[in-house]
Amino acid sequence: MANSEIHRASTTAPVNIAVVKYWGKRDANLNLPTNSSLSVTLAQSDLRTHTTASCSSTYTTDTLTLNSAPQSLSSPRTQACLRELRSLRAALEDSNPSLPKLSPLPLKIVSFNNFPTAAGLASSAAGFAALVRAIADLYALPQSPSSLSLIARQGSGSACRSLLGGFVGWNVGTAPDGSDSKAYEVAPAAHWAELRAIILVASAAKKSVSSTAGMQATVATSPLFRVRAAELVPARMGAMEEAIRRRDFEAFGALTMKESNNFHATCLDTEPPILYLNDTSRAAIRAAEGINKAAGKVVAAYTFDAGPNAVVYYVEGDTERVAGSFKRILANVDGWDGDRGWAVQGQGLEGAIEESTAEALKEGVSRVILTGVGEGPMKTERHLVDEKGEEVLNMEGS
């Protein structure tokens, strides 16, 4: 196989939304966390990054484009991922001289997100997971998803969890080299396929404080964070895994909301305070609390990553009580098209969301995304680079 050929592999990778949050690094160079975390992998039919990795002797240098815009590959974190993947391929080539020499060839990586980038929707997690998985497939690497998560973690911490589907933990680890700080499956998607989520997009703008900068400031200045990392999170990891194993939504939901509140409290406890939530975010919290009060139990569980967008979990049997209550006031917002949205009647729980809260949501929510628990990265033959090495344009819906 001649190296002038265009070698290609493509994958789609999911967004994950943590229910036990990752925040803070004990080693910035290796992207090692200060605490374990746990997330729900969301369905790729609703939120995904689609990436093609290609290599050829006809390319002159490594390149990356995201949504048709050139991106830099010069960051140490990105270079660490590329270096480790190339090293693994080179080892394969050394052990089997008949393999084509792909490891020295320049890479052309093309990615598309079907959701807003850098707006608190875990775009870097899906992006680095897709990049690592696509290059691993290009290089025919035999490593497991959990092993590849060690590489993806160096690009973006939460990306390690997007290498697996369903319910995924990320072990904090203790090894100085990070060899035990990797993702693991808590339960597959099929274990609790009834879990659903509605995402209220409060802002598609790039956030003012990046996660990396925010973590550094919190670790350096927040006394509350130290209590969180040392005491709260270790106990909550066990409780969350047990709630998932039992498919106990009330326990899952109550803990999810406590975790989100505590995470954002540490952001407020940072100097200067980090304000990821806005008025729309707070209205979403009040709405979820109103729905739970009207239902007489926890049926809606809000969580926020490092951004203003609300993710509200619920189970399929409570679709009308939860998603229906939001549709009752947000029926004119984009996102209700498609099977998931059409299945929501919009009757909801009458009076669950107060008028002032409803008005704040109407004013601040620009889009809703209905989704559920989903699988990890999936190989696809739909390439974003053609046989001549040119980017495929107009990939709407990628």
Shape: globular
Examine the coordinates and then state which fold CATH places here, giving the name of the CATH topology of the largest domain.
Ribosomal Protein S5, domain 2
Give the strand order of the largest sheet, numbering strands 1, 2, ... along the chain.
8-7-9-6-1-16
Measured between the Cα atoms of the first and last residue, the distance is 30 Å
Q: Number of DSSP strands?
A: 16
CATH architecture of the largest domain: 2-Layer Sandwich
Assess the beta-strand content as a share of residues.
Answer: 15-25%
**Helicity, as a percent range:** 25-40%
Helix count equals 10
Structural class: alpha+beta
Biggest beta-sheet profile: 6 strands, mixed
Low-confidence stretches: none
Oligomer: single chain
- The number of domains is 2
Protein name: Diphosphomevalonate decarboxylase
Family: Belongs to the diphosphomevalonate decarboxylase family.
Catalytic activity: (R)-5-diphosphomevalonate + ATP = isopentenyl diphosphate + ADP + phosphate + CO2
EC number: 4.1.1.33
Can you give a write-up of this model?
It is globular and about 70 Å long. It is built from ten helices and 16 strands. The chain starts with 6 loop residues before the first strand and ends in an 18-residue tail after the last strand. Helix 1 runs antiparallel to helix 3 (145-155), helix 2 (123-138) packs across helix 3 (145-155) and helix 7 (279-295) packs across helix 10 (355-364). It has two domains: 7-189, Ribosomal Protein S5, domain 2, CATH 3.30.230; 192-372, 2-Layer Sandwich (Alpha-Beta Plaits), CATH 3.30.70. With 398 residues, it is an alpha+beta fold. This is Diphosphomevalonate decarboxylase. Residues 197-378 form the Mvd1 C-terminal domain. Keywords: ATP-binding, Lipid biosynthesis, Lipid metabolism, Lyase, Nucleotide-binding, Steroid biosynthesis, Steroid metabolism, Sterol biosynthesis, Sterol metabolism. It comes from Viridothelium virens (Speckled blister lichen).
